[in-house]
Amino acid sequence: MKKVLLVGLGTMGTGHFFSHRTAAGSDLIAVCDVRYDMAKEKLTNFQSDTPLYDDMVKAIEDCRPDVVDIVTPTFTHAELAIKAMEMGCDVLCEKPMALTAAECERMIEASRRTGRRLMIAHVVRFMAPYMYLKSVIEGGKFGRLLRLDMKRISAIPRSSSDNWMQDDELSGGVILDLSIHDIDFARYMFGDPKKVSGLYYTQRDLTEYATADLTYDGFSVSVETGWYKAWIPFTCGYTAVFENGMVTAAGDDVFENGNKIELKPEMEELSIGSPCDTLDGYAREIQYFISRLESGGEFDASTPESSLGTVALCRKIIEVCDKI
Ligand SMILES: NC(=O)c1ccc[n+]([C@@H]2O[C@H](COP(=O)([O-])OP(=O)(O)OC[C@H]3O[C@@H](n4cnc5c(N)ncnc54)[C@H](O)[C@@H]3O)[C@@H](O)[C@H]2O)c1
Fold first, then answer.
1. CATH superfamily placement of domain 125-278+290-323
2. What would the pLDDT profile of 210-247 be if each residue is shown by its tens digit?
């Protein structure tokens, strides 16, 4: 078991709070949030007596966790992760790793200097439909991949603390915050594209959306993302067309040539080389992180260097997109 301190009990941190209960090997011993009263009320509602702090350093000094799980706004990731590693903790940190490649490099340097382990929580790599797609691409079930379309859109997120997510300086905007899931999956699977191009449309309070094309040798990947003013449900999925067939996903549902298939944990296990006794991607990424800490194995399903590369690719896409 690893003793875990969860830092950040906002929108995503609440999800992590419950995933730590599901993930084998995790012992959540304390929570920290600078909005102490908000977090206290949440813990009361969850009928939890988990100790609560408003300062990460104090929480680490008091509780001596093995692991710090950072689920705070993106602009705080680098400083908190580096501090936690310097204080002797292994760190799991939400995506994006940080706002810039330079900050990511500082995090990797801190991991090397302190000898503490660092993994970025790219949950899509641990989600069943994407793990399944990985196994189809690598196993060659339908032959060569010709085209992959990925999509991820939602209403404008309004629940972030002080609305930091709507400030590009703090969140990086919709490409770095939301589309990163699909851009990261493409890069995880295929590496850096030969060419990128795209469109980026921003009209504050109405929408911020982007489409980007990533060109690889012999196939291409398109990503579409957007935050919209209208209340629309969170929608994500993909269409992968191969020489001999097609795999599509809509949310958690996966179809082969139009026929829904049932995903089984053992089919996906191959994808990360680690047991998958839960289908919840968030619990699975935590479980994977802890199992690799315990075995001393590499985080080969999510190395910090690959997370740095993803931030760099997102930044490149933002730079080259035609702004409309
Ligand atoms: N993987 C996913 O599916 C997913 C989904 C949403 C958000 N995220 C990521 O999770 C991170 C958090 O996003 P969110 O939507 O939960 O934001 P949020 O604003 O809802 O929550 C962040 C929480 O961190 C707290 N906080 C800020 N600074 C702190 C500090 N120094 N110490 C302790 N607590 C601090 C805030 O008070 C807040 O409660 C972001 O990096 C975001 O990109 C990931």
1. Dihydrodipicolinate Reductase; domain 2 (3.30.360.10)
2. 999 999 999 999 999 999 999 999 999 999 999 999 99
- So what CATH class is 2-123? alpha beta
Contact 116, 90 (CB under 8 A): yes
Structure-block tokens of residue 9: 């009990």
Q: Quick one: which atom of ligand 1 is closest to the CA of 162?
A: 19
Pairing state of beta strands 235-242 and 145-155?
A: antiparallel
**One-letter amino acid identity for 179?**
S
Packed helices 180-190 and 128-139: angle between N→C axes, nearest 10 degrees: 30
Backbone torsions φ then ψ of 63, nearest 5 degrees: -100, -20
Tracing tokens 């997510």 back to the chain, one arrives at 165
Residue among 7, 11, 174 to mutate when testing ligand 1 (max atoms within 8 A of CB): 11
What pLDDT score was predicted for residue 206? 93
- Could you tell me the distance, in angstroms and rounded to a whole number, from the CA of residue 258 to the centre of ligand 1? 37
Q: Could you state, in order of their start, the residue ranges of all structural domains in the chain?
A: 2-123, 125-278+290-323
Q: What is the pLDDT of residue 270?
A: 47
